[in-house]
Batch of 2 targets.
Target 1
Amino acid sequence: MSDHSDQERRSPHEPDTLPPDIAQRARRLLFDLARPERTGYLVLVVILLLFGIGNAIGPALIAQAMDRGIPAAIDGDTTALVIPLAAFLLVTLATGVADFFGTRLTGTLAQRLMVSLRRRLFDHVQRLGIAYHERSTSGRLVSRQTSDMENIQVFLTGSLQETAIGLAAMGAIAVTLIVMDWRMAIVVFLGFIPLLWVSIVSNRAQRRNQRRTRTAIAKVIVHIVETLGGIRAVQSFRREDVNDRRIVEEDREFRNATAASLRNTAWFAAGTRLIGNLSMAAVLLVGGWLVIGDALQVGMLTAFLLYVRRFYGPLDELVQAFTMYQSASAALEKITAVIDAVPEVVEPTSPTPLPAVRAGGRRVEFDDVAFSYGDGVPVLPRFDLEIPAGQTVALVGMTGAGKSTLVKLLTRFYDPTAGRVLMDGVDLREVADDDLRRAVVMVTQESYQFGGSIADNIRIGRPGATDQQVRDAADAVGLTPFIRRMPDGFDTDVRKRGGRLSSGQRQLVSFARAFLADPDVLVLDEATAHLDIPSERQVQEALATVLEGRTAVIIAHRLSTVEIADRVLVMDDGRLVEDDTPAALIASGGRFAKLHGAWEESRA
Ligand SMILES: Nc1ncnc2c1ncn2[C@@H]1O[C@H](COP(=O)(O)OP(=O)(O)OP(=O)(O)O)[C@@H](O)[C@H]1O
């Protein structure tokens, strides 16, 4: 457990550094994902064994046909020739069938493994705490789910079957060689020593190369995702050329890493082929010598030559598969690091139910709370705060004062470093996630719109809501007149990021969503965008409707919002420096009064 949180703390800050035991963790993950399909894997092993045996029997039958069948046939007895030949045909046919079913089954198992891995990763990424997402770039997570996934897919569906079949054939042939003639077997296996050496050296280098390649391509993807995500800023500040130069750099690193990997593959391929051919020559030399000395028959020598071919033959494919395997395992390691990360905010195992809500929302308390982000710098020094049920509190203060941090504790995106946040007396750490999400809803600044219709976007507030309830919510916040003017009314597609909606309309959709969700506590990070006067009035009216009958904390950027609050909290450098009704604070002539004065002036 502490192991896991270590991992989460480490990975976002040093995203390219993986823990030393990552290879074992990746293997454990793979076994875990494969477990439900164990019968399939067992059948596959049997098929592969049959395939291997088929491969091993073939040359032995040929030896028999040559050494016994042909001399017997010359003497007039063809049976000794026909039987091994018929058996050879049968074995070839059976091997073909095993090959077919093996390939199909490997493909199916690989696809299922991919689907479970993808699902596990996506599910996990969604559930990882806001803390993780705030530290990790989304590009990196996109790269885990695209290019890394693809690498695993390429290996599993393309090369795994070659590898399995190749290894099965090699294993069965090795056993047969020993049984048939141990002297010749030793000659064949001698080639194994340099082969093992080449494999180990190349494996180490390739592992490094592939990790480097995965990191390099992740950087390219991060850059692309960032550029597209901030395309408006990119174009406004003419960042195109800078971005071009950066991507050229990143591509160069990717190219160098790939080139190193290719060099290694070439070296490994040439080495293994050379060893295969030398083994063939050695078998011919020793075998020929034994044949001359009458210690071996020509048929057996032919069989041995065929075995060497069949033994070293799959190596070509294994070399290819080996590179893909290295690439896939580097990708799997990166994915494992994400899947192994444990959210810092954990759901309680035996949650405390919240008491029944009274009309007017819930009481919120910050009891001796202090908070710092992972870096340990205190953002909120110890403080106490009580918000009675039904109160609307406006949080104001300079940028960086800690307003968003305070509401992140209330929504339990983070847990306080010290003290407790309570809702109707229950520590938020004791509340089940579902109860908490039902009780507290946060409307964010960006008023994020998902793909789909306007109705879909409102319904996010309460997924089971009827069309009538969705329409009522839109009515309540004054959104209906806008929707009527849209081409398909409630069914209008909001397109990417609400491209068809103005910022004011997006806020109203968010309000409708919150209205439909009907939380006990509403947290609102008000958009800073300046709205024109009619829109501002509209948003203000909608806000008043949404706030009714619940507790609310609003990060207020607009004077009009502060005016409808029951209470204003002024924050400065993480501290609550003023706390009273708007009127009292204006009268006291403190910070808020100054801020208010400046607002008034800007409106004049
Ligand atoms: N995820 C984070 N990790 C580390 N530090 C953070 C993180 N988020 C905010 N901070 C720091 O915490 C302090 C308070 O930030 P916060 O976002 O709460 O301020 P704010 O009052 O909401 O500002 P604004 O009005 O500009 O949104 C700032 O110094 C900020 O740099």
Target 2
Amino acid sequence: MEKAILIGVQTYTSHSFEERMEEMKELALACDIEICMSISQNLEHPHKKYYMNPGKIEEVKRILEDQECSMVLVLEAISPSVQRNLSDFFDCEVMDKSALILEIFASRAKTKESMLQVECARLKYLLPRLQGSYKHMDRQRGGSRNKGTGEKKIELDARRIEGKIHFVEKELDKIHTQRSVQRNQRKKGMVKSVALTGYTNAGKSSIMNGFVNEDKSVFEKDMLFATLTTSTRQIETENHNVFTLSDTVGFISDLPHSLVQAFHSTLEEAVVSDLILKVVDISNEHKDSKLQVCEETLKEIGCEKVPYLYVFNKCDQTNIEYPKRVEDRIYICAKEKSSIAFLKQEIEKELFHMETLHVVIPYEKVSVLDYIHTNGKVHRQEYKEDGIEVDFSIQQDLIHRVDRLLRI
Ligand SMILES: Nc1nc2c(ncn2[C@@H]2O[C@H](COP(=O)(O)OP(=O)(O)OP(=O)(O)O)[C@@H](O)[C@H]2O)c(=O)[nH]1
Ligand SMILES: [Mg+2]
């Protein structure tokens, strides 16, 4: 495992500083990097050239040597020039949050689409950072007025990278067209769709797995960014209503812009869905800020108008009673069957507007009972003197048909 020092500047306006430092540790761990020490500095704003004040940077360098660390991690996204200044000064690799996230995505990407998305994001991250990577070549040439070898090489490389980005984007376009054709086919069949969204590690894939048999299960694990591609499964309710459920890539604060762009299409599933489940790990002490990131990201990708439910997951780790619903908030534990059944019912209510009714069907109209059995869910059925008493649930827009059949 590689050893690193984490540095972070706390400004007056920077919120949830400790929490973000903690998250960097988790991200580092996901990249197989161990953080030996965290060093922070209170500043009005980060130093223009070195992120921290030069005195502090000297201190970091000393510790770096003492602790035999080979890398410096920076709490937030830094500009290419600051990154270059720091790596020149420390004479070691310097990674910011964006670089760490890109690294994780690159090591986890398995499908063609996610590999292309990560490739695209990496190239876009690399492009403004080419400057300086050939500095040594220009130093050798001395002060020539013509372009140095390094400079020419940068231009060449930049053009090559731009060409690659163009190629990758075209490939991605093809995949997206295919995906939207599939989606439109599903829409034509009028199958309603539900998307699981939320901060990474909230339990989206676990909820998905609660709904499906093992052979249809998706990858779930206690690590950041376990899911990188959208998976969609068809779900049938007790009342024979069918909907699709999509598991999506998790959100994180300060997601590199190139990644947001690259993953937009994956998250499109949420934009076009009939219902969004905003999944929150309620046992996490930073749940509020994580929910805020979730809300902001959903807004950014254009989901403001899609109906939603909050799903507060991992209630088993808290004292909160579950499963239960309070207005638009559902409290569950993805690991328990009763919670999944409850969630399924609530999704059904939202999508199909199910209503529970009580009727007495006269014996001469027993065919109504067939209709109810086929289109709804019968909870109780009793044969009485004046007819059959039935308690059942059915879609709101089918109630008038039952009513008409009873009156014919
Ligand atoms: N105790 C408890 N653990 C849970 C619950 N739901 C999920 N987990 C655990 O939380 C971890 C993350 O779950 P995932 O389902 O992979 O989370 P995710 O939201 O899909 O995460 P990403 O794919 O990274 O966005 C796993 O170790 C799960 O076993 C729950 O209700 N209770
Ligand atoms: Mg997942």
